[in-house]
Amino acid sequence: MKIVVEHLTKKFPSRNKNVKEDVVAVSDFTFEIPDGKLIGLLGPSGCGKSTALNLLCGLLKPTEGRIYFGEEDVTDLPPEHRGVGMVFQNYALYPHMTVRQNIVFPLENRKGADRLSRAQMEEKALEAAKLVQIDHLMDRRPKELSGGQQQRVAIARALVKMPKVLLMDEPLSNLDARLRLQTREEIRRIQKETGITTVFVTHDQEEAMSISDQIVVMRDGVIQQIGRPQDVYDDPVNLFVAKFLGNPPINVFEGRIEGGRLLIGEEAVLSVKGLQDQPVWVGIRPEGFVLSETGALTCRLTEVEVMGRDITVVSTHPKSLNVEIRSIIDADHQESVGESQVRFHVKPHKVFLFHRETEERIDFDCDEQ
Amino acid sequence: MDKRGKKGWLYLLPAGLFLACFMVYPLIDVFIYSFEEGYNFASQTFFGVGWYNYSYVLHDPYFLQAVKNTFILVIFTVPISTGLSLLISAGLNSIRKLRDLFQTIYFLPYVTNTLAVGLVFMILFQKTPYSDGLVNMLLNWLGMSSVDFIDGPYWAKMFVLCFYTVWVVMPFKILILTGALASVDETYYNAARVDGTPGWRMFTRITLPMISPSLFYLIITGFIGAFKSYSDAVALFGTDLNAAEMNTIVGYVYDMLYGNSGGYPSYASAAAILLFAIVLTITCINLLVSRKHVYY
Questions:
Q1: What average pLDDT does range B71-91 have in this prediction?
Q2: Checking DSSP bridges between strand A64-69 and strand A72-73, what pairing results, if any?
Q3: 3-state secondary structure chain B
Q4: Which residue of B has its CA nearest to A158?
Q5: Which of A89, A141, A208, B160 qualifies as a cystine partner to B149, CB 3.0-4.6 A?
């Protein structure tokens, strides 16, 4: 089921009596989610991701804008008529019911012609449980399950009624690191197997990058960028997106353009033809550094972390906004690390320039190397 | 016994001593009294040991009347007060505006004095040569004939007693239940809404099980409280409850000890032990039933 969102806006009345202005949680969202894809809504906490999800779900009513599932306008439909399944952050499993009863619960709500026989319900529940591999735990209570198992029950409960759209609110945040890796693969597998259009919310960029077909990066209720994870990583539209994606994070420097050259401090790092002289932010991805004794950028060496496959050179630079610069270098080039300082060349396609005030991306020509 | 165990018992000792002196010893004493036949309070002597006290009490029409009254009181007031409290709490929980105001209003009876309120009830319900009372005026207005609820027929008096008891016990129940209802996590309801759960089903399948520990606590204490009621009847009908046919089991015990016919600690003890047995039985039944329906 394709999801189309047009100019979706949600305002909450201000709690603070002295401030009359409404709080805008979601501002003018417009995007389209193709059928059968896994979409990650990504942003720092408090940016309106969960509100956006609740609007899609129907638990919240939008202030403005429309939502379409396929061709149908669902904006004014209550959640139960939208055909959505929802997995809540804390799973919201009914603690007094067994796994079986939890999964069957949505089916028991059906009335009239849609109503299934008891045997059919049990069969569907078992089917959903098998999909998430918990069919051997059907008679346990949620309390007797591990976090990962509870998560699966919640997914099974959302899937049992064959929703057109599956929504997940921070599905992995309550799991430990190892389980998180495992479960996110699992979510990917289940989504592929069922082909249900899935939207999930997360503040963890790695999580979103690793399993999403598309990510939507949000900040303060406004969509910053939508695209395939790799595209967004390689081509961020502004400094926020560039900083938010990537681990280790991008290194940001204070720089300026003078006479077609990009300067960091007094060192000319790149030649950037055709750009006006102006102060800029320079973002360089950790993998954008090349160790070289003739390198243009000189940094003070802090330490070298050896990871086996590659090494991380940790250094500092007076013009860097980050406390330390982390650059990931192929382990073969270790020998050119000096005693107290390192020099780098930079890969032009790993360097992004941003406007000093607006923080918007400035494109530049890098064909010269 | 290891050192930790010894320490534990040592810490429990002060409380244990107090309990032994003021709880366990009197209980045993009452039990012994109930078997001492012809006990004389002044000379502290008795004729023999046996079941006579029980036999006397069980054949005493006043006691049987008291048992009947107490059971009627329990059977009507516990379900009605609990049900009404649940209804009011659910209502309170679903409104935002004025919730605090209503909560305060509903809680007021709890802090007012039982006897003073009893007086007000008496004035509301009593029919005297000078006035019909407010309730009778209402009845007349509805086209029914007036009844004296305080000195009139048995059912009328019983009605007032039940009405009054329900009114008195409800504030505490509402307080507990509104707290329990408010503590049910909102996401359960959201999850149920997404799955299209009808309101009534949400209440029976989610709300009720979630608040079942509080509800069960109220039912148990409600039963025990109603079995032990006495002051409510006194507030409405005065101290001569036997004459009014409105005595309760505790009232009977009191009368045996201190009333007009007082001075019979052995009969009082036997009646008290009988009450204890009844309450114990009912509570055990409650506990057994609750195992199936209460989720902790």
A1: 94
A2: antiparallel
A3: CCHHHHHHHHHHHHHHHHHHHHHHHHHHHHHHHCCEECCECCCCECCEECCHHHHHHHHCHHHHHHHHHHHHHHHHHHHHHHHHHHHHHHHHHHCCCCHHHHHHHHHHHHHCCHHHHHHHHHHHHCCCCCCCCHHHHHHHHCCCCCCCCCCCCHHHHHHHHHHHHHHHHHHHHHHHHHHHHHCCCHHHHHHHHHCCCCHHHHHHHHHHHHHHHHHHHHHHHHHHHHHCCCHHHHHHHCCCHHHHCCCCHHHHHHHHHHCCCCCCHHHHHHHHHHHHHHHHHHHHHHHHHHHHHCCC
A4: B195
A5: B160
Instruction: Check which CATH number belongs to the domain holding A140 and give it.
Output: 3.40.50.300
* Interface touch A84/B188, C-beta < 8 Å: no
Q: What does the pLDDT look like over A78-128, one tens digit per residue?
A: 888 888 999 998 899 999 999 999 999 999 988 877 788 889 999 999 988
pLDDT value at A367 more than 70: no
Q: Which chain A residues contact residue B293 at CB under 8 A?
A: none
pLDDT recorded at residue A94: 93
Angle between helices A147-159 and A177-194 (to 10 degrees): 20
Cβ atoms of A2 and A70 closer than 8 Å? yes
| Whether residue A229 is found in the same domain as residue A269 | no
Tens of pLDDT, residues B259-281: 765 678 888 899 999 999 999 99
Q: A347 and A284: one domain? A: yes
Q: B39-57 pLDDT, tens per residue? A: 777 677 778 788 888 998 8
Task: Give the total number of structural domains in chain A.
Answer: 2
Nearest CA-CA distance, residue B105 and chain A, Å: 27
| pLDDT, tens digit (0-9, with 9 covering 90-100), for B252-261 | 998 888 876 5
> Would the pTM count as exceeding 0.90?
no
Residue-number span of the structural domain to which A58 is assigned: 3-238
Q: Establish if A116 touches chain B: CB-CB under 8 angstroms.
A: no
Nearest to A91 by CA among A20, A161, A214, A173: A173
Closest CA to A251 of A323, A164, A158: A323
Q: Which two tokens stand for residue B268?
A: 């009082």
**Residue B260: what pLDDT?**
67
ipTM score = 0.80
Tens of pLDDT, residue by residue over B183-233, are: 999 899 999 999 888 888 999 999 999 999 999 999 999 999 999 988 888
Do A165 and A206 sit in the same domain of this protein? Answer: yes
Selected residue with higher pLDDT from B292 and A291? A291
A92, A109, A157 member nearest B196 (Cβ): A109
Architecture per CATH, B59-293: Orthogonal Bundle (1.10)
Name the residue with higher pLDDT: A14 or A87: A87
Cα B50–chain centre separation: 32
Q: Which residues of A touch B209 (CB under 8 A)?
A: 94, 96
